[in-house]
Write a structure and sequence with these properties.
Layout (H helix, E strand, L loop, with lengths): L7 H8 L2 H10 L4 E2 H6 L5 H13 L3 E6 L2 E6 L1 H36 L1
């Protein structure tokens, strides 16, 4: 789980892969079994399971096992972590841009 604020790069690294992004998009429609998920991707099962493991390691998906069937679902806390990180950085940059705007306006008025 990406609860450590110093490691957002792990989540973004996981999302940088197109296959993993497609898995996230697919799971947004609801939980599904590993087999059903894998059928939608043209790759060997062990390779596909590696992608699921990466998503699970960073807290973007969870899995449960019922008998021989493993089902994957989105973990909202992982996505909330990403949203919070982006919001924090967006706020920081908006503040800096506002300060730059104020400086430019002040300098422009001083030139008059």
């Amino acid at each position: 789980m990406p609860n450590d604020r110093s490691e957002p790069h792990r989540v973004f690294q996981a999302l940088a892969d197109p296959t993993r992004c497609r898995v996230i998009e697919r799971l947004a429609a609801g939980p599904t079994s590993t087999t059903s998920l894998a059928e939608e991707f043209d790759m060997a099962l062990p390779s596909f399971l590696q992608h699921l493991r990466v998503l699970s390691d960073v807290g973007l998906v969870t899995s449960t096992k019922n008998g021989r069937v493993r089902t994957y679902a989105l973990d909202p806390t992982g996505l909330e972590f990403v949203a919070e990180w982006l919001d924090d950085n967006r706020l920081r940059w908006e503040t800096r841009l506002d300060q730059l705007d104020e400086l430019v306006i002040r300098l422009h008025e001083e030139e008059k």
